[in-house]
Amino acid sequence: MLNENLRISESLLQVSVVSRIKNQLLNGRIPQTYLFSGPESTGRKTMARALAATLLCRKNESFSEGFDACRECESCRAVASDCHPDLNFIYPMGNDIKVSQIRAMQKSAELKPLYGKWRFIVICQADSLNESSGNCILKILEESPPSLIFVLIAANEKKILPTILSRSEHIVFRSPSHKDVREYIVKRYNINSDITARYYAQSLGKPGKTIEWLTDLQGVSERSSLALPEAQTAYIDQLANISGHFSKIFSSANSLDGLTKIFNNSDLLETSALANARREFCLGIIAAPLLPASFPLLFSRLMLETLDQVKSEVKKEVEKFFKSQKENYSSGILKELEDGAGYSVTEIAYSQIDSFLLSLSAILADMLYSAHSTDEEILLNIDEKEFIINSLKFHGLPRVEAKLRTISLMRNYLRRYVNPGLILENILSDFGGRLL
Ligand SMILES: [Zn+2]
Questions:
Q1: Which residue of 163, 196, 369, 374 has the fewest C-beta atoms within 10 A of its own C-beta?
Q2: Distance CA 271, CA 163 (A)
Q3: For the chain, what are the domain ranges?
Q4: C-alpha 280 to ligand 1 mean position (Å)
Q5: Are 169 and 33 spatial neighbours (Cβ–Cβ below 8 Å)?
Q6: Among candidates 174, 262, 185, which has minimal Cα distance to 1?
């Protein structure tokens, strides 16, 4: 799986992006700064890695029609396992990318290539560069040799400093339709369409994550239709597993880069089992004709206590790591990084609550779409289309719309750090007990 994504031409469903980048390489006009903008899960980072792999590949002396990374040479293997010395990723630490991170990067490595002809710096969530880290990047851009290539990845290009934006080759990534993604995966990986549909639905529409799970050697998990209490237990168990999963990933990349990478990619902590349990639980909530009046309060307490436990376990590991870094960084930088890490630990819990709300609203949104269109391909949860149609009959369109509005409002509150217990209770009481 790791090597799958190294080829520019295979970048998922981004045909116009692929041809634009390929033309630049063929003509030898490689911009020094790329800006890849677009929504999440459109393959921006995958493309950044493929671009680096292609330019760094030992077998690509010159580019001719049909070139790509070989995926076999030393360099390609290093890119695939994220340990190429000429390819660095920077992620926000806390709520922004700090100037200390840019300086640490600048300090930790020479700006000329160590291994190949090029050196890449990929700035993930570049819209969270603050003024001082943005200016620091700008300074490096102005002074750096043409062999240094920056790739900035951003959801919102309006937040990029205009002085950086004007120097960038701006490439826009667009979301493909659910239908196109499902068809692509079935064809490209030769996987059964029902299983593809289910995994894609539980990924909440993330092509890369779906492919990762489907091509995982552990095999495809069975669909488990559980009653609501069992579905709840299964979901809570999976949430409790997050800290174990964190340790496993972190132990293989015990570095500042490894830590920020995990913190900024909540997908890394997302296992197929967790996603599956979450969706089953959400389907169960919508299917339940009646929920006990105590359910919203009890579930929200259970979920928050579990996430607190996860947080304290992750925090312990992070503290241990920072203690071991005393010799590598000045105490000022270390303090700033540790504060950012503390914020990120809290974010792990918030992003789980948000994923739960998203999963619930994805099913409700499908109910809404099914009321307005006969084209079932627009559904994310297409494998549950009968359930979707029946549930719409049961709940009725006005209620579905009201629930979607509530969830959207509550997600806004969650982003402003309103008490998550209140948020969960508010949403769940809209489903259960008296109100039905
Ligand atoms: Zn290669």
A1: 374
A2: 40
A3: 2-172, 221-435
A4: 42
A5: yes
A6: 185
User: CA dist 91 to 33, 78, 102, 238, 256, Å?
Assistant: 17, 20, 10, 26, 10
CA distance 282 to 403: 13
Q: Per residue of the chain (436 residues), give pLDDT as tens.
A: 444 567 777 666 788 899 899 889 888 888 999 999 999 888 899 899 999 999 999 887 777 766 788 889 999 999 988 889 899 889 887 778 888 888 877 765 556 787 888 999 999 999 999 999 999 999 888 888 888 899 999 998 898 999 999 999 999 999 889 999 999 999 988 899 999 999 999 999 988 889 888 887 555 666 666 788 899 999 999 999 999 999 998 888 778 878 877 887 777 889 999 999 999 999 999 998 788 889 999 999 999 999 999 999 999 999 999 888 888 888 888 888 888 888 888 888 999 999 999 999 999 999 999 999 999 999 999 999 999 999 999 899 999 999 999 999 999 999 888 999 999 999 998 875 444 3
- The Å distance, Cα 53 to ligand 1 centre, comes to 7
CA of 6 to the centre of ligand 1 (A): 9
| From the candidate CATH numbers 3.40.50.620, 2.40.330.10, 3.40.50.300, 3.30.70.270, the one assigned to the domain spanning 2-172 | 3.40.50.300
